[in-house]
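User: Please fill in residues for this 133-position structure.
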């Protein structure tokens, strides 16, 4: 399972549905991974607020999961997936899918795993399987 930033944020906010999903994944031995794109997004938010406690919490939530780098295969997949979504939507940049979501979606495709998110619409445009919580 590729954990989207929205799931990790929900964990940071002590969201009960996110916690329950994490327990279900643990009980079922579902592997969970985090794209470095989500790492960037979480640390960006903490750096923007200049909140040391938030930085600590981000580090703590990320310690539990392996990070997946963006390699050449994931970059290529992301570009192809966004291009296809934009073509389907009528032209360049028409799908509304952001680059960060494309990298996360491409990570899911590369690992043949779904994305765990609350932002299912953009990932569905990319043609990846989605799990919600």
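Assistant: Residues filled in for all 133 positions:
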């Amino acid at each position: 399972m590729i954990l989207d930033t929205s799931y990790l944020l929900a964990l940071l906010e002590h969201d009960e549905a996110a916690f329950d999903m994490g327990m279900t994944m643990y009980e079922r031995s579902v592997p969970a991974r985090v794209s470095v794109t989500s790492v960037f997004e979480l640390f960006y938010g903490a750096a923007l607020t200049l909140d040391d406690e938030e930085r600590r919490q981000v580090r703590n939530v990320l310690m539990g999961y392996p990070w997946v780098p963006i390699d050449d295969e994931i970059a290529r997949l992301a570009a192809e997936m966004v291009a296809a979504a934009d073509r389907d939507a009528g032209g360049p940049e028409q799908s509304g899918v952001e680059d960060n979501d494309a990298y996360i979606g491409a990570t899911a495709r590369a690992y043949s795993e779904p994305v765990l998110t609350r932002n299912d619409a953009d990932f569905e445009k990319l043609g990846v399987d989605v799990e919600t919580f």
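For context: Helices lie at 5-12, 16-27, 36-49, 52-63, 72-89, 99-111, 120-125.
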